[in-house]
Write a structure and sequence with these properties.
This protein has 3 helices and 2 strands, in the order H-E-E-H-H. It has about 170 residues and is mainly alpha-helical. It folds into 2 domains: about 100 residues, no CATH class; about 45 residues. It is found in: Mitochondrion.
Length: about 170
């Protein structure tokens, strides 16, 4: 994935990198995923996927050396091993969801369904978000009421203060 900006069709690539790649990395910690970003918008945003060939006879190595991700074009793609093939995706002018669909299709990955616990947590988060909106509206009303009272007191003080009652 390449580019720091949105010009020349880089928006989908950037959204894929920000939204989808962290989830892919979270659910696939043993799969190396490297991001190499740079400032050259004239280059096409590309995604390289390394897949083991189905007829590979050697077991996959337990660990592979991989460069760290880079924001300044320092993480070059490594050449494939003898038992790997590379799928290159041109992400120019593609929406991030289309890129994800292509990646899932090419890798034959299966999307995970959320567990009952995750569904419950998501429902709790939604409920908290709704309650937070109600609380924000209530607090906004209280702040506005306090500001109105302070403004009224300020106008009363400016008009000469509280009228004193005459002693009779």
């Amino acid at each position: 994935m390449r580019s720091l900006g949105f010009k020349n069709g880089h928006m989908g690539a950037k959204k894929f990198w920000r939204e989808n790649l962290p989830r892919l990395k979270y659910h696939n910690p043993s799969v190396p995923m490297i991001v190499n970003r740079h400032n050259q918008n004239q280059k096409k945003p590309t995604l390289s996927i390394y897949l083991r060939k189905p007829d590979a006879t050697t077991p996959p190595p337990e660990s592979r050396s991989q460069p760290a991700s880079s924001r300044s074009n320092l993480s070059k793609a490594t050449p494939p091993d003898a038992d790997e093939k590379i799928i290159t995706v041109d992400m120019t002018e593609k929406h991030s969801s289309h890129i994800l669909e292509f990646v899932l299709a090419e890798t034959r990955a299966v999307p995970l369904k959320p567990t009952k616990e995750e569904i419950r947590e998501l429902q709790e988060i939604d409920a908290m978000a709704k309650q937070a909106e109600v609380d924000r509206a209530r607090m906004r009303g209280l702040r506005e009421e306090k500001q109105r009272e302070e403004a009224m007191l300020k106008r009363a003080r400016a008009a000469g203060g509280v009228a004193e009652e005459e002693d009779s």
